[in-house]
Amino acid sequence: MLKSTSILLAPAIAGLAFAAAPASAEVRVLDFAQGNYCRDGQLCTNNGDIDQTYGDTADLNVTTRSVVDGRTNAAFYYERGFGDLVGVIFAGNGQPTAEGQIQFDAAEGFELSLLSFDAGCFGGNANCQSFSYSVFVDGGLTGRGTGSTGYPGHTTQPLGTRYARSVLLTFGTGENVGLDNIRFDIRPTAATPAVPEPATWAMMIGGFGLVGGAMRRRNLAIALTA
């Protein structure tokens, strides 16, 4: 009797647990394959500046830029030459001290985690055999490091930030480091536990009553046979 009563309670309890569970994440990749997203919708060619609308979706805003000596400019596209990557974003376009920046801002009700990115060096130049990067989550610095670009190939830099509304990735050194295949998760923010519907409350209360009644009958049966 107790076993069958527990089964009656299971749907109500499971419903509550489901309401509180976080939503599943969707893995996406921001890549820089050639397309019409440079210079106000023109086809991207080498050194073309990347439009600020590239990568935007209903649940995400992406901002790309170069920063040189405190001045902000567009970030740039290049097709080949950065190791074995095909299509990259790079900073500066002639400015060896330029820093590239890619910022992800989730829409209201969403959050994201930055997973990894690929980095390559242009032409095997000495100043891009390694690169530096920083990660800011919701405006606070959470990670900083360096990595090899792996010329003539490329390397993948893992990140795995915590979920947040905003993540900023900065990278250098200089214009000869290019990034591609920036991977991230985006998901609706975790649901708060739902207030049970009246019918759910009734089912739970009725189930607990059945359990209590079964336990009393069992105890009485044990007492009579003792």
Walk me through the structure:
The protein is built from two helices and 13 strands, in the order αβββββββββββββα. It has helices at residues 2-20, 198-225, and strands at 26-30, 48-49, 60-68, 71-73, 76-78, 88-90, 99-106, 110-121, 130-137, 140-148, 155-158, 166-172, 177-188. Residues 1-21 and 220-224 have low confidence and may be disordered. The protein folds into two domains: 2-19 and 194-225; 22-188, Jelly Rolls, CATH 2.60.120. The strands form three sheets. It has a six-stranded antiparallel β-sheet with strand order 4-3-7-12-9-10, with no helix packed on it. A hairpin with a 2-residue loop joins strand 9 and strand 10 (140-148). With 226 residues, it is of the alpha+beta class. The protein starts with a helix and ends with a helix.
